[in-house]
Amino acid sequence: MPGWLPRAMVLALALYACFQLGSWAFDQLIGLLTNVLIAFFLALAIEPAVGRMAARGMRRGLATFIVFIGLMIFSAGFVVLLGSMLAGQIVDMVDDFPEYIDSVINWVNHTFHTELSRVQVQDSLLHSDWLQKYVQNSASGVLDVSTTVLGGLFRLLTIFLFSFYFAADGPRLRRALCSVLPPARQTEVLRAWEIAVDKTGGYLYSRGLMALISGVAHYILLVVLGVPYAPALAVWVGLVSQFIPTIGTYLAGALPMLIAFTVNPWYALWVLGFVVVYQQFENYVLQPKLTAKTVDIHPAVAFGSVVAGTALLGAVGALIAIPAVATLQAFLGAYVKRYDVTDDPRVHGGHRPRRGESAVSRIRRALGGPGQNPPDTP
Asked: With contact defined as beta carbons under 8 Å apart, do 331 and 191 qualify?
């Protein structure tokens, strides 16, 4: 046996053990790493506000605390307003539920020539097997729901804590990171950090502006239709449709449709049609223009980044995908050498003319007239 073989086997086993240990640690810490990533982007989002307040002489810790308090007050006010609206609407729907059942039963009896009654329908529902199983599963799942809620609160607290430290100690964090790098690398890291702050802030600015436009448009529709709680519903549609990726549009449109249905079932169809039409206007007209001015990323790249982020990190990846890709694109654009494009018609989608062929000959050849080559004869 060669003398190096035992050492190579020991080294291979040690590397394999380190790989297994690293994989196990990564699987155990994936939740914490995701929370830290969210907190980092949240700190980048509030960095401009904190920086302006710190430039005026305020301590960064106090400035960060004031920004977080403002965000928490706004979020709590929105949740309380929306919750009070939903509570009132749920009470009204429960009171009017017998009338809805009677109208549906009358329509079924008239259309299919049946003789159903509300008492029969209620008895069949109360004594059905699937309802009893659902009640049993719901009773057994109360503990799971409580655990999920407590876990979500703990995760939210962790994100806020890390984002507070990232924002309050931003200069100290950058100084600690640059202290282990050579001067040339320090410049690149600081440049990347600055680009990340600009792109994240631009992304949130564009989303906030689109949320404002969407809220105003839906508010006008709801006021015209006479749907109650139009301001709260408009704020709901604007925020949820813009800051919850992929399914945010459907969640945002479902609540106004439900409230409109309590007023008039046809109003729900009007709301659905308006949501679909406005979504197309936003995707193809509004969003490309705002994205080009704030984030400077192509709509196709933005859509692909959201899909990739969803596949990697779920909803969190979809939320931070666009600012991350915009930051990477801007950072790489500073180091990619570009050249002047030649004046060729093919750049603009045209065809290169053939040499030695006049324009008249090309037109005749295209139209099949005289001047084209005679067909080959056997």
From this structure: yes
Residue with tokens 């449109």: 253
Distance CA 234, CA 259 (A): 12
Among 118, 100, 115, 295, CA closest to 208: 295
For residue 337, is pLDDT > 70? no
CB 321 within 8 A of CB 308: yes
Report pTM.
0.62
* DSSP at 198: H
**Residue 75 and residue 334: Cα distance in Å, rounded?**
38
Q: What CA–CA distances, in Å, run from 259 to 218, 243, 275? A: 13, 22, 14
Name the one residue in this structure whose structure tokens are 């008249």: 360
Give dist(CA 225, CA 218) in Å, integer: 11
- How many CA atoms does the CB half-sphere of 374 hold within 13 Å? 3
Tens-place pLDDT, residues 208-225: 888 888 889 988 998 898
The residues near 203 (Cβ < 8 Å, ≥ 6 apart) are 294, 295, 322, 323, 326
Is pLDDT larger for residue 328 or for residue 126? 328
Q: Is 196 in contact with 44 (CB distance < 8 Å)?
A: yes
Q: Coil, strand, or helix at residue 192?
A: helix
CA atoms within 13 A on the CB side of 150: 6
Confidence of residue 378 (pLDDT cuts 50, 70, 90): very low
Q: How many CB atoms lie within 10 A of CB 92?
A: 13
Sign of the C-alpha dihedral computed for residues 331, 334, 335 and 336 taken in this order: positive
**Residue 55 half-sphere exposure, CB side, CA atoms within 13 Å?**
6
Reported as a single tens digit per residue, the pLDDT across 162-204 is: 888 888 888 888 888 888 888 878 888 788 778 777 777 777 7
